[in-house]
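ARCHIVE CARD
SHELF: 3
SLOT: left
DATA:
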Amino acid sequence: MKKDTPLSPPADNGFRESEDAQHVEPQASREDIWFEKYRTQSYKDLAMRMRELNLQIKAKDDEAKALKAEFDVIRLRVVPERFAEDDITNMKINGVGRLAISSDAYCNIRSGRQEELLQFLRDQDMGDVIKEGVNPSTLKSLVKEMYKEHLESAGELDLAAEAESAVDDFFDQQSDSEDADDFQRISEFVDFTPFMKASITKA
Protein backbone atom coordinates (compact mmCIF):
# COMPACT_ATOMS: atom_id res chain seq x y z
CA MET A 1 0.00 0.00 0.00
CA LYS A 2 1.39 3.35 -1.03
CA LYS A 3 2.20 5.65 1.84
CA ASP A 4 0.93 9.18 1.77
CA THR A 5 3.60 11.70 0.89
CA PRO A 6 3.90 14.28 3.63
CA LEU A 7 2.95 17.77 2.58
CA SER A 8 5.82 20.17 2.11
CA PRO A 9 5.66 23.49 3.91
CA PRO A 10 4.61 26.35 1.68
CA ALA A 11 7.41 28.05 -0.14
CA ASP A 12 8.75 31.17 1.50
CA ASN A 13 7.94 33.81 -1.06
CA GLY A 14 8.87 36.73 1.11
CA PHE A 15 5.35 37.71 2.12
CA ARG A 16 5.59 36.20 5.61
CA GLU A 17 8.70 38.15 6.48
CA SER A 18 7.08 41.31 5.21
CA GLU A 19 3.96 40.69 7.33
CA ASP A 20 6.09 40.01 10.42
CA ALA A 21 8.01 43.21 9.82
CA GLN A 22 4.78 45.15 9.88
CA HIS A 23 4.15 44.03 13.45
CA VAL A 24 7.50 45.11 14.87
CA GLU A 25 6.85 47.28 17.90
CA PRO A 26 8.30 50.79 17.55
CA GLN A 27 11.14 51.54 19.90
CA ALA A 28 10.28 53.67 22.88
CA SER A 29 11.30 57.30 22.72
CA ARG A 30 13.81 58.76 25.12
CA GLU A 31 10.99 60.62 26.88
CA ASP A 32 8.99 57.40 27.31
CA ILE A 33 12.02 55.63 28.76
CA TRP A 34 12.48 58.43 31.28
CA PHE A 35 8.78 58.34 32.11
CA GLU A 36 8.89 54.63 32.89
CA LYS A 37 12.08 55.10 34.91
CA TYR A 38 10.70 57.82 37.15
CA ARG A 39 7.01 56.98 37.39
CA THR A 40 7.52 54.59 40.34
CA GLN A 41 10.09 56.62 42.26
CA SER A 42 9.29 58.39 45.50
CA TYR A 43 8.49 62.07 45.57
CA LYS A 44 11.71 62.67 47.48
CA ASP A 45 13.77 60.96 44.78
CA LEU A 46 11.92 62.88 42.09
CA ALA A 47 12.47 66.20 43.85
CA MET A 48 16.16 65.49 44.38
CA ARG A 49 16.58 64.53 40.73
CA MET A 50 14.75 67.68 39.62
CA ARG A 51 17.08 69.81 41.73
CA GLU A 52 20.13 67.97 40.37
CA LEU A 53 19.00 68.41 36.77
CA ASN A 54 18.21 72.08 37.34
CA LEU A 55 21.71 72.70 38.68
CA GLN A 56 23.21 70.87 35.68
CA ILE A 57 21.10 72.94 33.28
CA LYS A 58 22.25 76.17 34.93
CA ALA A 59 25.87 75.04 34.77
CA LYS A 60 25.47 74.17 31.08
CA ASP A 61 23.83 77.54 30.42
CA ASP A 62 26.71 79.36 32.13
CA GLU A 63 29.21 77.27 30.17
CA ALA A 64 27.37 77.95 26.92
CA LYS A 65 27.35 81.69 27.60
CA ALA A 66 31.10 81.65 28.26
CA LEU A 67 31.74 79.68 25.06
CA LYS A 68 29.52 82.08 23.08
CA ALA A 69 31.41 85.08 24.49
CA GLU A 70 34.76 83.54 23.56
CA PHE A 71 33.44 82.67 20.08
CA ASP A 72 32.27 86.26 19.57
CA VAL A 73 35.66 87.69 20.56
CA ILE A 74 37.29 85.61 17.83
CA ARG A 75 34.71 86.19 15.08
CA LEU A 76 33.85 89.83 15.80
CA ARG A 77 37.17 91.28 16.97
CA VAL A 78 40.27 89.14 16.45
CA VAL A 79 39.74 87.86 12.89
CA PRO A 80 38.33 91.11 11.43
CA GLU A 81 41.20 93.14 12.94
CA ARG A 82 43.85 90.65 11.81
CA PHE A 83 42.38 90.51 8.30
CA ALA A 84 42.35 94.32 8.15
CA GLU A 85 46.01 94.42 9.19
CA ASP A 86 46.94 91.83 6.56
CA ASP A 87 44.65 93.45 3.94
CA ILE A 88 42.74 90.24 3.15
CA THR A 89 39.06 89.28 3.29
CA ASN A 90 39.19 85.47 3.14
CA MET A 91 41.56 82.53 3.12
CA LYS A 92 41.37 78.76 2.62
CA ILE A 93 42.50 76.65 5.59
CA ASN A 94 43.19 72.97 4.96
CA GLY A 95 41.04 70.68 7.05
CA VAL A 96 38.70 73.49 8.11
CA GLY A 97 37.27 75.36 5.14
CA ARG A 98 37.24 78.99 4.06
CA LEU A 99 37.60 81.66 6.73
CA ALA A 100 36.07 84.96 5.60
CA ILE A 101 34.73 88.22 6.94
CA SER A 102 31.54 89.99 5.92
CA SER A 103 29.63 93.08 6.98
CA ASP A 104 26.62 92.86 9.29
CA ALA A 105 24.78 95.18 11.65
CA TYR A 106 22.64 95.46 14.76
CA CYS A 107 19.37 97.23 14.02
CA ASN A 108 16.67 97.99 16.60
CA ILE A 109 13.69 100.32 16.71
CA ARG A 110 14.29 103.14 19.14
CA SER A 111 12.15 103.15 22.25
CA GLY A 112 8.76 104.79 21.65
CA ARG A 113 9.40 105.43 17.94
CA GLN A 114 7.73 102.39 16.33
CA GLU A 115 4.57 104.19 15.17
CA GLU A 116 6.66 107.01 13.67
CA LEU A 117 8.83 104.43 11.92
CA LEU A 118 5.77 102.70 10.47
CA GLN A 119 4.44 106.02 9.18
CA PHE A 120 7.85 106.85 7.71
CA LEU A 121 7.91 103.55 5.83
CA ARG A 122 4.41 104.18 4.48
CA ASP A 123 5.37 107.70 3.37
CA GLN A 124 8.37 106.23 1.51
CA ASP A 125 6.18 103.61 -0.25
CA MET A 126 7.85 100.86 1.80
CA GLY A 127 4.70 99.72 3.57
CA ASP A 128 5.09 96.22 2.14
CA VAL A 129 7.64 95.44 4.89
CA ILE A 130 4.97 96.04 7.56
CA LYS A 131 3.41 92.76 8.67
CA GLU A 132 1.59 93.50 11.94
CA GLY A 133 4.63 95.56 12.85
CA VAL A 134 8.04 95.26 11.21
CA ASN A 135 9.94 92.00 10.95
CA PRO A 136 13.38 92.60 12.55
CA SER A 137 15.26 90.79 9.77
CA THR A 138 13.36 92.67 7.06
CA LEU A 139 14.00 95.98 8.80
CA LYS A 140 17.71 95.25 9.14
CA SER A 141 18.01 94.35 5.45
CA LEU A 142 16.17 97.51 4.47
CA VAL A 143 18.30 99.80 6.65
CA LYS A 144 21.51 98.03 5.54
CA GLU A 145 20.63 98.84 1.93
CA MET A 146 19.93 102.46 2.89
CA TYR A 147 23.24 102.54 4.75
CA LYS A 148 25.09 101.20 1.72
CA GLU A 149 23.52 103.87 -0.50
CA HIS A 150 24.41 106.49 2.12
CA LEU A 151 28.07 105.43 2.06
CA GLU A 152 28.16 105.40 -1.74
CA SER A 153 26.67 108.89 -1.95
CA ALA A 154 29.21 110.09 0.61
CA GLY A 155 32.05 108.44 -1.30
CA GLU A 156 32.77 106.02 1.58
CA LEU A 157 32.78 102.35 0.53
CA ASP A 158 34.89 100.87 3.32
CA LEU A 159 32.27 99.30 5.62
CA ALA A 160 34.88 98.15 8.10
CA ALA A 161 36.31 101.65 8.48
CA GLU A 162 32.85 103.14 8.78
CA ALA A 163 31.92 100.56 11.40
CA GLU A 164 34.85 101.71 13.52
CA SER A 165 33.86 105.38 13.24
CA ALA A 166 31.28 107.16 15.34
CA VAL A 167 28.19 106.30 13.31
CA ASP A 168 26.07 108.20 15.82
CA ASP A 169 27.39 111.40 14.25
CA PHE A 170 24.88 111.14 11.45
CA PHE A 171 22.16 109.48 13.57
CA ASP A 172 21.62 112.86 15.24
CA GLN A 173 21.21 114.84 12.05
CA GLN A 174 17.85 116.52 11.62
CA SER A 175 15.48 114.32 9.61
CA ASP A 176 13.79 117.35 8.03
CA SER A 177 16.97 118.45 6.28
CA GLU A 178 16.47 118.76 2.54
CA ASP A 179 19.84 117.07 1.99
CA ALA A 180 19.14 114.11 4.29
CA ASP A 181 18.98 110.74 2.55
CA ASP A 182 16.72 107.80 3.49
CA PHE A 183 19.27 106.35 5.89
CA GLN A 184 19.71 109.64 7.77
CA ARG A 185 15.94 110.06 8.04
CA ILE A 186 15.21 106.52 9.21
CA SER A 187 18.05 106.79 11.74
CA GLU A 188 15.74 109.00 13.75
CA PHE A 189 13.62 105.92 14.46
CA VAL A 190 16.15 103.07 14.61
CA ASP A 191 19.52 102.34 16.19
CA PHE A 192 21.83 100.92 13.53
CA THR A 193 25.35 99.72 14.36
CA PRO A 194 27.41 98.15 11.53
CA PHE A 195 30.16 95.65 12.29
CA MET A 196 32.34 93.05 10.62
CA LYS A 197 32.11 89.34 11.46
CA ALA A 198 34.09 86.24 10.58
CA SER A 199 32.60 82.92 9.53
CA ILE A 200 33.76 79.53 8.27
CA THR A 201 32.27 77.89 5.20
CA LYS A 202 33.14 74.82 3.20
CA ALA A 203 36.06 75.42 0.91
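SLOT: right
DATA:
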Amino acid sequence: MKITGCQQSRSLQDPNDTPNLEMDASSPTTAYWNDPDATALAVRDGWLYTGDLAYQDEDGYFWFSGRKKEIIIRGGSNISPQEVEEILLQHPAVFQAGVVGTPDPDLGESVIAFVSLRDQRTCSETELIDFARKSLSDHKVPRAVYFLAAIPLGNTGKVSRKLLKEMLQKDACPGVKNEIARRRSLTKAIAPTGTESVGA
Protein backbone atom coordinates (compact mmCIF):
# COMPACT_ATOMS: atom_id res chain seq x y z
CA MET A 1 0.00 0.00 0.00
CA LYS A 2 1.27 3.48 -0.80
CA ILE A 3 0.22 7.13 -1.03
CA THR A 4 0.82 9.08 -4.23
CA GLY A 5 0.12 12.62 -5.36
CA CYS A 6 1.19 14.36 -2.14
CA GLN A 7 3.65 14.42 0.72
CA GLN A 8 3.39 11.47 3.12
CA SER A 9 2.63 13.59 6.16
CA ARG A 10 -0.56 15.68 6.33
CA SER A 11 1.41 18.47 7.99
CA LEU A 12 3.52 18.77 4.83
CA GLN A 13 0.67 18.28 2.38
CA ASP A 14 -0.02 21.02 -0.13
CA PRO A 15 -3.71 22.00 0.03
CA ASN A 16 -4.03 21.46 -3.73
CA ASP A 17 -2.54 17.95 -3.65
CA THR A 18 -4.79 14.94 -4.15
CA PRO A 19 -3.49 12.14 -1.89
CA ASN A 20 -4.38 8.86 -3.63
CA LEU A 21 -4.31 5.48 -1.94
CA GLU A 22 -2.88 2.69 -4.10
CA MET A 23 -2.60 -1.02 -3.31
CA ASP A 24 -0.45 -3.79 -4.70
CA ALA A 25 -2.41 -5.37 -7.55
CA SER A 26 -0.17 -8.41 -8.06
CA SER A 27 -2.98 -10.77 -7.05
CA PRO A 28 -4.51 -12.45 -10.16
CA THR A 29 -8.00 -11.82 -8.74
CA THR A 30 -7.60 -8.02 -8.82
CA ALA A 31 -9.97 -7.14 -11.67
CA TYR A 32 -13.55 -6.12 -12.37
CA TRP A 33 -15.78 -8.99 -13.43
CA ASN A 34 -16.31 -8.90 -17.21
CA ASP A 35 -15.28 -5.24 -17.36
CA PRO A 36 -11.79 -4.89 -18.90
CA ASP A 37 -12.19 -1.13 -19.45
CA ALA A 38 -12.85 -0.47 -15.75
CA THR A 39 -9.97 -2.79 -14.84
CA ALA A 40 -7.61 -0.90 -17.14
CA LEU A 41 -8.52 2.38 -15.44
CA ALA A 42 -8.17 0.99 -11.92
CA VAL A 43 -5.13 -1.26 -12.29
CA ARG A 44 -2.02 0.43 -13.65
CA ASP A 45 1.62 -0.58 -13.51
CA GLY A 46 0.86 -3.26 -10.94
CA TRP A 47 -1.04 -0.94 -8.58
CA LEU A 48 -4.77 -0.75 -7.81
CA TYR A 49 -6.06 2.82 -7.76
CA THR A 50 -8.72 2.58 -5.05
CA GLY A 51 -10.25 6.03 -5.53
CA ASP A 52 -9.73 6.67 -1.82
CA LEU A 53 -7.97 9.76 -0.50
CA ALA A 54 -5.64 9.17 2.42
CA TYR A 55 -2.47 10.27 4.12
CA GLN A 56 0.16 8.48 6.19
CA ASP A 57 1.22 9.89 9.54
CA GLU A 58 4.69 9.91 11.06
CA ASP A 59 4.01 6.57 12.78
CA GLY A 60 3.16 4.88 9.49
CA TYR A 61 -0.62 4.72 9.99
CA PHE A 62 -2.92 5.42 7.06
CA TRP A 63 -5.83 7.81 7.56
CA PHE A 64 -8.70 7.98 5.09
CA SER A 65 -10.00 11.43 4.18
CA GLY A 66 -12.65 10.73 1.56
CA ARG A 67 -13.28 9.61 -2.01
CA LYS A 68 -11.58 11.25 -4.97
CA LYS A 69 -14.82 11.51 -6.97
CA GLU A 70 -16.45 13.46 -4.13
CA ILE A 71 -13.78 16.17 -4.00
CA ILE A 72 -15.13 19.70 -4.51
CA ILE A 73 -12.98 21.86 -6.80
CA ARG A 74 -13.37 25.58 -6.17
CA GLY A 75 -11.12 28.09 -7.87
CA GLY A 76 -8.58 25.37 -8.63
CA SER A 77 -8.40 24.21 -4.99
CA ASN A 78 -9.43 20.74 -3.84
CA ILE A 79 -11.87 20.62 -0.91
CA SER A 80 -12.68 17.47 1.02
CA PRO A 81 -16.38 17.34 1.97
CA GLN A 82 -15.46 15.21 4.97
CA GLU A 83 -13.17 17.94 6.33
CA VAL A 84 -15.98 20.49 6.23
CA GLU A 85 -18.46 18.02 7.72
CA GLU A 86 -16.13 17.28 10.64
CA ILE A 87 -15.95 20.98 11.49
CA LEU A 88 -19.73 21.42 11.35
CA LEU A 89 -20.20 18.38 13.58
CA GLN A 90 -18.16 20.11 16.28
CA HIS A 91 -20.96 22.63 16.73
CA PRO A 92 -23.01 21.57 19.78
CA ALA A 93 -26.34 21.92 17.95
CA VAL A 94 -25.41 19.82 14.91
CA PHE A 95 -26.33 16.13 14.90
CA GLN A 96 -25.59 15.24 11.26
CA ALA A 97 -23.84 17.03 8.42
CA GLY A 98 -23.41 16.45 4.71
CA VAL A 99 -21.42 18.59 2.30
CA VAL A 100 -21.47 18.62 -1.50
CA GLY A 101 -20.45 20.86 -4.36
CA THR A 102 -22.83 22.63 -6.70
CA PRO A 103 -21.85 24.20 -10.04
CA ASP A 104 -20.50 27.75 -9.91
CA PRO A 105 -20.02 29.52 -13.25
CA ASP A 106 -17.09 31.56 -11.96
CA LEU A 107 -15.17 29.26 -9.59
CA GLY A 108 -16.17 25.77 -10.72
CA GLU A 109 -18.11 24.68 -7.65
CA SER A 110 -19.62 26.15 -4.48
CA VAL A 111 -19.57 24.38 -1.12
CA ILE A 112 -23.09 23.61 0.12
CA ALA A 113 -23.84 22.09 3.53
CA PHE A 114 -26.86 20.23 4.84
CA VAL A 115 -27.32 19.65 8.56
CA SER A 116 -29.80 18.14 10.97
CA LEU A 117 -29.95 19.47 14.53
CA ARG A 118 -30.02 17.73 17.88
CA ASP A 119 -33.33 17.56 19.72
CA GLN A 120 -34.32 20.81 21.40
CA ARG A 121 -31.34 22.64 19.90
CA THR A 122 -31.55 25.60 17.54
CA CYS A 123 -29.02 27.23 15.27
CA SER A 124 -29.07 29.65 12.35
CA GLU A 125 -27.33 29.41 9.01
CA THR A 126 -25.26 32.50 9.79
CA GLU A 127 -24.11 31.01 13.10
CA LEU A 128 -22.93 27.80 11.41
CA ILE A 129 -21.10 29.68 8.64
CA ASP A 130 -19.35 31.88 11.20
CA PHE A 131 -18.49 28.78 13.24
CA ALA A 132 -16.98 27.05 10.20
CA ARG A 133 -15.00 30.16 9.25
CA LYS A 134 -13.08 29.95 12.52
CA SER A 135 -11.49 26.65 11.47
CA LEU A 136 -11.59 26.60 7.66
CA SER A 137 -9.96 28.60 4.89
CA ASP A 138 -12.39 30.97 3.21
CA HIS A 139 -12.76 28.88 0.05
CA LYS A 140 -13.80 25.85 2.17
CA VAL A 141 -16.51 27.66 4.15
CA PRO A 142 -20.04 26.66 3.04
CA ARG A 143 -21.72 29.25 0.86
CA ALA A 144 -25.11 28.08 2.09
CA VAL A 145 -26.38 25.80 4.87
CA TYR A 146 -29.73 24.04 4.64
CA PHE A 147 -31.53 22.28 7.46
CA LEU A 148 -33.09 18.82 7.09
CA ALA A 149 -34.98 16.64 9.56
CA ALA A 150 -32.40 13.93 8.81
CA ILE A 151 -29.40 13.60 6.52
CA PRO A 152 -29.87 10.79 3.96
CA LEU A 153 -27.60 7.81 4.58
CA GLY A 154 -26.42 5.01 2.31
CA ASN A 155 -26.54 1.28 2.95
CA THR A 156 -23.33 1.47 5.01
CA GLY A 157 -24.74 4.17 7.30
CA LYS A 158 -22.53 6.89 5.83
CA VAL A 159 -23.77 10.23 4.50
CA SER A 160 -25.11 9.77 0.96
CA ARG A 161 -23.63 12.75 -0.86
CA LYS A 162 -25.09 11.33 -4.05
CA LEU A 163 -28.62 11.75 -2.67
CA LEU A 164 -27.81 15.24 -1.42
CA LYS A 165 -26.62 16.21 -4.89
CA GLU A 166 -29.78 14.77 -6.38
CA MET A 167 -31.80 16.90 -3.98
CA LEU A 168 -30.00 19.99 -5.27
CA GLN A 169 -30.42 18.99 -8.89
CA LYS A 170 -34.12 18.22 -8.47
CA ASP A 171 -34.64 21.26 -6.23
CA ALA A 172 -36.03 18.92 -3.59
CA CYS A 173 -35.10 21.50 -0.98
CA PRO A 174 -37.49 24.42 -1.61
CA GLY A 175 -35.71 27.43 -3.05
CA VAL A 176 -32.17 26.03 -2.82
CA LYS A 177 -31.18 26.81 -6.41
CA ASN A 178 -32.86 30.20 -6.43
CA GLU A 179 -31.29 31.16 -3.12
CA ILE A 180 -27.80 30.17 -4.27
CA ALA A 181 -28.25 32.20 -7.45
CA ARG A 182 -29.60 35.17 -5.46
CA ARG A 183 -26.63 35.14 -3.08
CA ARG A 184 -24.16 34.88 -5.95
CA SER A 185 -25.80 37.85 -7.65
CA LEU A 186 -25.70 39.93 -4.47
CA THR A 187 -22.06 39.05 -3.85
CA LYS A 188 -21.05 40.16 -7.34
CA ALA A 189 -22.88 43.44 -6.79
CA ILE A 190 -21.30 44.35 -3.46
CA ALA A 191 -18.02 42.42 -3.11
CA PRO A 192 -14.74 43.94 -4.35
CA THR A 193 -13.14 42.15 -7.29
CA GLY A 194 -11.14 39.09 -6.27
CA THR A 195 -12.85 38.63 -2.89
CA GLU A 196 -15.50 36.28 -1.59
CA SER A 197 -18.20 37.07 0.92
CA VAL A 198 -20.13 34.89 3.33
CA GLY A 199 -23.05 33.32 1.52
CA ALA A 200 -21.52 33.81 -1.94
